[in-house]
Amino acid sequence: MCSVILPGTQVWLWRNAGAWRGWEGAPYSTLVPSDEVTINYRHGLPVITLMLPTRSERCQFTVKPVVTTVGAFLQDVQREDKGVERAEVFATDGSKVSHATLMEILLMNDFKLVINNTEYSVSPPVKDKLNSEHATEMEDIKSLVHRLFVALHLEDHQIRKERELLQKVDHLKEELLPLEQMKARIINSADAKTSRLLWVGLALMSTQGGALAWLTWWVYSWDIMEPVTYFITYGTAMAFYAYFVLTKQDYIYPHAKDRQFLHYFYRKSKKQHFNVERYNKLKDDLAEAEESLRRLRQPLHLRLPIQEINDKD
C-alpha cells in the first residue's frame, strides 16, 4: 500500500499540543512536480514518491532497504496500479538492474525507473556519512536483522520445500509403477529360462557320464575309452578358454548364471518395449529426491556443512 498525494497539493504542518497536524493551503509549502520521482528519508527509511500512470496521482512507497529487493518494490508498484504493465530499473549506463538486488544497493547511486513507456531519472539523496564506530554498529544491526529474517522464514521455506519434494516423490512413484510391474514380469521370465538352462546342463552332464560308463564297462574296455575321455576333457577346457576370450571373464558358475540371466532379460525387454534407460533415470531421480527429503527432515545442526561448523568453532 502507498500514501496518495494529489497533484499540485501544497502541504504545511504546525505543532499543536504535542502533535503534528496538516492542512491544505498555506505558509510554508513545497510544490513537487507531478512528473518526477523523488526519494526522501522518513524515520530512517527511504520513501519513494512517484506518479501512478492510470490513477494520475502521486503515491508514496516506504521500503525497507535491508530486506526489500528491487523486484519486490516493482511488484508493489504493479499491485497498486493495475495499469502498470512494465516496471523495470536500469543503471545510468543502460544496464538492467536484477530483481534480486537489494534496495539498499540500488539507492547508493543514480538510476532510471521505467514505468510503461515513461522513463524517470532518479537521484537518491546523499545520506550523511557515519563515523567508523557507528557504521560498524549499523552493519552489525543489518546482519542481525538479516539473520532474524532468515530464521523466521526458515520454517516456511522448509515446509514448502518438503511439500515440493513429496509431490516429486509421488509423481516419480506413479511413473515407476507400470515399469516396475513390467520389470517384475520380465525378471520372472528370464529367471525361469535361466533355471531351465541350468537343469538342461545338469541333464546333459549326467547323460554324458552315463554314456561313458556304459561304453567303458559294457561295450568297450578302459584301454579304448581312456583316449576318448581325454579328448572330451581337452575339448571342455577349450570351451572354457573360448568363454574367457569372448567375455574376458573366468567361467565361474554364479557369474555365468548372471550373464545368461541378463541376456534373457534384455532380449525380453526389447520384445516388450521396456525402456531400461528411462527406468534407471527414474530410479536415480527417486533416490535423489528421497535423500533430499531425508536430509531436509534432519535437525538443522546435522545438515550444516563441516566447513561451516568449523568456522563457528
From TrEMBL:
UniProt GO MF annotations: calcium channel activity; calcium channel inhibitor activity; uniporter activity
Domain Calcium uniporter protein C-terminal: 80-282
Any one Gene Ontology BP term: calcium import into the mitochondrion
Top-rank taxon: Eukaryota
GO CC, one annotated term: uniplex complex
UniProt-annotated location(s): Membrane; Mitochondrion inner membrane
Primary location class: membrane
Segments forming a coiled coil: none
Pfam families per the UniProt record, alphabetical: MCU (PF04678)
Membrane topology listed for this record: Multi-pass membrane protein
Stated family: Belongs to the MCU (TC 1.A.77) family.
UniProt note: domains: The selectivity filter, in which calcium ions are arranged in single file, is composed of two acidic rings separated by one helical turn along the central axis of the channel pore.
Annotated protein name in UniProt: Calcium uniporter protein
